[in-house]
Amino acid sequence: MLDKYTCLEKLAAGRTDEIIITCMGTAKPWENLSDTALDFASVDSAMGHAADFGLGIALAQPGRRVIVLNGDGSMLMSLGTLVTIAQRPCRNYVMVIIENGTYEVTGNQEVPGVGSVDFAAMARGAGIEQVYTVEDEEEFEERLPLIFQGKGPSVFIWKVERGEEPVPTFQKTLAERVRRLRRALISF
Amino acid sequence: MKLTASKIHQALKEQGITHVVGLPDNLSRVFFRGLEEDPDLEVIKVCREGEAFAIAAGLHIGGKKAVVLIQNTGLLEAGDALRGTSWNMRIPQVILLCYRGFKSLKGERERTDSAALFTEPTLDAWHIPYGIIRDDRDLAKLHDAFAKADTTSKPAAAILADTTV
After folding, report:
1. Does some domain include residue B62?
2. CATH number of the domain that A153 lies in?
3. Digit-coded pLDDT (tens) for B65-94
4. How many domains, chain B?
5. Which of A49, A78, A128 to probe by mutation at the B interface, max B CB count within 10 Å?
6. pLDDT-derived band at A188, boundaries 50, 70, 90
7. What is the pLDDT of residues A85-141, one digit of tens each?
8. Residue range(s) defining the domain that contains residue A87
9. Domain containing residue B90
10. Which of A3, A24, A123, A163 is the least crowded, having the fewest Cβ atoms under 10 Å away?
11. Which residues of B145-156 are buried (b: 16+ CB within 10 A; e: fewer)?
12. What is the pLDDT of residue B1?
């Protein structure tokens, strides 16, 4: 099993100009590592829609890599998005499903299908070709470069230990965070 | 009078639409076909209507202009997605909504399509302004929806009340 915080630190260390979309249990830990105009917390937004929201940005900005840090609970809320991602493939789209088996920020209630759901099989079954399950440090180190340089669309499943993140809150409203990201993208 | 797909299509182009995100239904099938044949537009088909709002929001943030094209049944399903993206993000999102059951509203109540019965009260409850386009004479209401969305930076709807031809 992986430690989510270590994974995020390594991702932040390797990141250059990619757009990072976070939600739920990764939103605050990522903000502590990076809070630039290209970091966007999908918090106070739509439940389970970070993945498709990121796809929209990737479609609009084909020259810029979009990395969505999704949760397993969030992914389960919109599984059809895997098919949508596959039927309109974007080379610049990467999704990481951070699988801890729970709804972490609401008190670690187990998600449906914990222990039996196979996200990699579902992503492949949806038609996504680049799918990687990462369960230990060695695999993480080996596959981290693919997040930045591999051909998309790609899905990484990070199997992580359960955490205890609270419900994330932000000083900036969602609309303010949207304006910051939009200004950064449209000025390029 | 009819609701001519090519005229709605033309109106979208006049508004500078780059992407149509949605899910086809029997009312919009002719319209959808024409959109998909247009090399200047990209049509993104989704599996469930909530995705359409999230994708359209991402497109807007990335500098594109998308319209969401769904049936009223899908709108009812997509409430949280609309709330959490278009509304909370302050996206000037125009929704083209196909009005399943519109004609049943004038008939006997027990035969009224509940999709139609719920549509306008839901839009009212969600504070989404809308105009109903019954035929080509009402096409100005589509442009009104764009104007309202732009003015408020919030979603606005234009409802297609008949089958497109």
Report:
1. yes
2. 3.40.50.970
3. 999 999 999 999 999 999 999 999 999 999
4. 1
5. A49
6. low
7. 999 999 999 999 999 999 999 999 999 999 999 999 999 999 999 999 999 999 999
8. 4-186
9. 5-160
10. A3
11. bbebbeeeebbb
12. 82
Chain-centroid distance of CA B52 in Å reads 10
Q: What phi and psi, each to the nearest 5 degrees, are found at residue A141?
A: -60, -40
**Hey, what are A42's tokens?**
């999908």
With a threshold of 0.85, tell me whether the complex ipTM lies above it.
yes
Q: Three-state DSSP class for A50?
A: helix
Q: What is the pLDDT of residue B155?
A: 98
Contact assignment for B44 to A54 by CB distance below 8 Å: no
Q: Is A54 on the interface with B (CB under 8 A)?
A: yes
Please tell me which of the candidates A48, A78, A185 has its beta carbon nearest to residue B61: A185
Cα distances from A168 to residues A31, A106, B160, in angstroms, run: 10, 10, 40
Digit-coded pLDDT (tens) for B58-71:
999 999 999 999 99
Residues constituting chain B: 165
Query: What is the spatial distance between Cα B65 and Cα B123, in angstroms, rounded to a whole number?
Result: 22
Given A44, A46, A87, which is nearest B54 (Cβ)? A46
**pLDDT mean across residues, chain B:** 96
Q: Within an 8 Å CB–CB cutoff, is residue B22 touching chain A?
A: no
- Nearest-5° angle of CA B29, CA A124, CA B85? 55
Contact with chain A for residue B81, Cβ under 8 A? yes
On chain B, the residues whose CB falls within 8 A of the CB of A20 are none
Of A53, A84, A88, which is closest to B85 when you measure between CB atoms?
Answer: A53
Per the structure, the count of domains in chain A is: 1
Q: Do B54 and A53 touch (CB under 8 A)?
A: yes
Rounded to a whole number of angstroms, the distance from the CA of A3 to the nearest CA of chain B is: 30
Confidence of residue B113 (pLDDT cuts 50, 70, 90): very high
Nearest to A84 among B46, B66, B80 (CB): B46
- Cross-chain residue pair B48–A80, CB shorter than 8 Å: yes
Q: Average pLDDT of B103-122? A: 91
